[in-house]
Amino acid sequence: MQRSLARNSNLKSAFKPSLASSVNVVFNAGTRFEDSQGVANVLKNFAFRDTENRSSLRQVREAEAAGGVLYSTLTRDNLTLSADFLPGHEDLFISLLADVVKSTKFNAHEYKESVKPAIEAEVNAAQHNPLIQAIDTAHTIAFRRGLGNSLFSASENPVDLQDVKKFASKVYSADNVAFLSTGQSDVSSTLSSYFSGLTTTGQVSSDKSHYFGGEQRFNLAHDGHANPTAFIAWGTTQPSAAHSVLAEFLGGQSSNIKWSRGTSPLSAIDEGDVKALNFEYSDANLFGFTVESNTDQNVKSASQKAVAALKAVADKGVESDKLAAAIAKSKFNYTLYADSAQGWKQLNGNGLINNNLKSLDQVLGEYDAVSTSSVQQAAAELLKNKVTLVTVGGRDLPYADELHL
Amino acid sequence: MVNPLKLSLAPYIKGGLRKTLEPFAKGYLNLAGFKQVGLRYDDLIQEENDQMQKALGRLSPREEYDRAWRLRRAINQSIQHKDLPAEQWSEEDPAQQRYLTDRIEQVTTEYNERQLFDNPEFKIEQKHH
After folding, report:
1. Does B102 touch chain A (CB under 8 A)?
2. Domains of chain A listed by start with CATH number
3. Out of B58, B106, B117, whose CB is closest to A57?
4. Would you call B24 an interface residue with chain A, using a CB distance cutoff of 8 Å?
5. Each residue of A208-264: pLDDT tens digit?
6. What ipTM was assigned to the predicted interfaces of this complex?
7. Distance between CA B117 and CA B113 in Å, rounded?
8. CA distances in angstroms from B45 to A227, A394, B3, B40, listed in the order given
9. Fewest beta carbons less than 10 Å away: which of A80, A127, A163, B88?
10. For B24-72, how does the pLDDT look when each residue is reduced to its tens digit (9 = 90+)?
């Protein structure tokens, strides 16, 4: 990962050389910082709407004319406004992003005419994907409020426009932002001139995460082509490298070699597609299995086998050569992620705002430090907690007590 | 530019001319008879076009309800060939009479902007060799 940090007096920014340019404005404004339900998602969808200087249409057409893309992304931690474009148009796109941050009008008619339909489409798409639905709900029952806030803004809880404005004025502040740019030259001086007037309202904070756990069952939307799905997870508030290595060790049915199912414990499960995942956040993580198959019964037996595989690690530990391979794969995947456009933004944005940016060597060192005993201990600690189980499908899907925990 | 507000000479008639014409304008408005059945000036604008529909969509629920009520009351009075009692005639206040104008202008601006962007004129600079 190539990176040079340019720190102005009040501007947190990072730059990475690349052929195409991009400017990303990252805010500590993810769903966990919401003060009213669904407000972060509405704010995300209010990006690139009418501002004092440019109408929504003008922004889109100007971006098209110059050859660029505008988009906003939302995670549990961050809200990111992005522009990808051809080098040479830095001024246009940075002024456009500054417009959005500083002078979005939050028109009531735009909320009704274009923002709400966009939100509805998002919710609708999410509800037709059992995996997204299961993982989003699992976060909610695992961490409840704060980190557990849903990424989507359900129409059952309409958000008041005044709350959106209030949230925007709170999070769009100078203490809350990091600028990440890629391109042929560093643009931090242009950034600081356009973003100079940002208010300083203090850094937003969210409550410290706690893990709860629980069970939730959904019916499968019958107009799609989705399979019955289960997500079985355990959370901790002490995320460690051992969890990532454990997920890598248990694996899934996608190996690095084409046409091969791999040799990981989960790849041996014939009944369904099982994958181990580890969602890591600043103060917590959620480790779990996604289980998909064609029938409820298959999901149930695949889930039982997946849980048995985790229990085997907790009881008997892992072989050291298998662990070495899992560590190598974790390191490779992390490096690949940190090198990708998406990963680079995610890791640096959050790290810069919260002043806890880790270098690549530091993270890889943590992976190297994982031992057979620490993986065994991590698995045992996870299993001590109450399980989080979300199933999407029929009545034959497993209940938590049927997983032989 | 054609828009739901149609043509108006109002912006060009200012100062002294306005003062001379104002009594005639008021007289005309009273003769037109819509005030006497409780309608406001903007209730009379033809609404069977996309821009006007969009502008009407931007009314608050209260404004929408009041508009529908004024129209129904006016139709009722018209059927009976009767004016409302004088205290129920619509208000003199121009802001209330033209309650929709700002939204029509907003929609028209958006519409014109889209026209402009859909038919851009690219200026090609002549290069001299």
Report:
1. no
2. 4-194 (3.30.830.10), 214-403 (3.30.830.10)
3. B117
4. no
5. 899 999 999 999 876 667 899 999 999 999 989 999 999 999 987 566 777 877 788
6. 0.77
7. 6
8. 55, 56, 11, 10
9. B88
10. 888 888 888 899 999 999 999 999 999 999 999 999 999 999 999 999 9
